[in-house]
Write a structure and sequence with these properties.
With 95 residues, the protein is mainly alpha-helical. It has helices spanning 2-26, 31-94. 0% of the residues are buried.
Length: 95
């Protein structure tokens, strides 16, 4: 299964490289302009990736913090329930 995935990924990377090389060779703009365009697009792509990564990190952190809060609430409720049960048992033993 992983062999197919690796071959597919390698094919995509090689195909993308060939496509970029062909586009650069056949581009109507000069080499400098093409390089500047490619650098700009790669920079934009990197910025988009970093932004998406930051947003996902913030989402995961918020989910994690919410889970921690829920666990703390459950622990407090269990302690209160244990205390209530103990108090009720103590009151029942007196009567």
């Amino acid at each position: 299964m992983f062999g197919k995935l690796i071959r597919f990924t390698l094919g995509v990377v090689i195909g993308g490289g060939i496509g970029v090389a062909t586009a650069m060779l056949l581009a109507p703009a000069s080499g400098d302009e093409t390089r500047d365009t490619v650098k700009g697009r790669l920079s934009e792509l990197g910025d988009s990736f970093r932004q998406a990564q930051l947003e996902k990190e913030q989402q995961m952190r918020a989910e994690w913090e919410e889970k921690i809060k829920l666990e703390e609430m459950r622990e407090r409720e269990e302690k209160h329930e244990t205390a209530r049960t103990a108090k009720a048992s103590a009151n029942g033993n007196r009567g």
